[in-house]
Every structure is written in structure tokens, then in C-alpha cells.
Amino acid sequence: MVIDGPPEAGGNNEGARPMELVLTGLGACAAFDVLSILKKSHQKVADFRAELEAERAESIPKVFTRIHIHFVIEGSGINPSAVQRAIHLSATKYCSATIMLRESVDITHDFEIVETGHDSAPPS
Predict the structure, then answer these.
(1) 3.30.300.20, 3.30.930.10, 3.30.470.20, 3.30.70.1350: CATH of 18-115
(2) What is the rounded distance in angstroms from the CA atom of residue 123 to the CA atom of residue 45?
(3) Is the separation of the CB atoms in 91 and 107 below 8 Å?
(4) Alpha-carbon span 96 to 85, nearest angstrom
(5) Taking residues 7-18, what's their average pLDDT?
(6) What's the pTM?
(7) How many CB atoms lie within 10 A of CB 15?
(8) Ranges of each domain in the chain
């Protein structure tokens, strides 16, 4: 993995920046948990993604002040209550990254379900 920064900080813009990796790690952790819980609750997920938006402080240290995770779940007959439960369990019990960051960052979640109209194998 190449990690870099902007030229004004001595970098070459040739890789991910450290704070981008923190955000990516949070999204991956939450997404892994939510999808795993949905699979265990027998939801027919065909595709799944987590879209993150974040705000950072204006001054140094430019920490995250707000992060929003929007889950998009595609599948057949996905139960919204099952999705809400999966997100809640991830945010409060399973996602180490969320639990670590939530003490200093406002982390919010929402989701949308896209009905595919057919049974599909879950993503691996």
C-alpha cells in the first residue's frame, strides 16, 4: 500500500493519505459487520456498499468532526428492520473503529434498499 501526501507536505500525491485510510478503515469495518449480520438473518443481499462523507476541523490537528455512513443494500425482499438492527449492532457492539472514534466524532448512519426483484447470491 502506498501512503503519500500533498507536495506542500513533502509528498507526491501518489497514494492514499493517512486520514483517508482512517475513514476507509471505519467504512470497511462497519460494512463488514452490517453485511455479515444481514447474511446471518437470511437477507437476500445481491450487492452492498457503504458511502462515507466526513467533515474535518479547520485547524490543526484536522481531526474528523463528523462522519456519515450511508449503506446501500440491493437485493430481494430486504427487511428494513433487519437492516436497522444490523447497523445498530455494528455501531454499538461490533465495529471497533466506530466504537473507538465515536467518543470524539459525531458518527451517523442511514440506509437505502434497492429492490432487485429476483433472488441473488450474497456478495462474498
Answers:
(1) 3.30.300.20
(2) 7
(3) yes
(4) 17
(5) 93
(6) 0.88
(7) 14
(8) 18-115
Give the 3-state secondary structure of the chain: CCECCCHHHCCCCCCECHHHHHHHHHHHHHHHHHHHHHHHCCCEEEEEEEEEEEEECCCCCCCEEEEEEEEEEEEECCCHHHHHHHHHHHHHHHCHHHHHHCCCCEEEEEEEEEECCCCCCCCC
pLDDT tens track for 34-92: 999 999 999 999 999 999 999 999 999 999 999 999 999 999 999 999 999 999 999 99
Q: Which residue in 14, 26, 12 sits closest to 68, CA to CA?
A: 26
Joined together, the cell numbers standing for residue 42 give 437470511
Cell numbers that stand for 84 in this block? 436497522
CA 30 to chain centre: 5
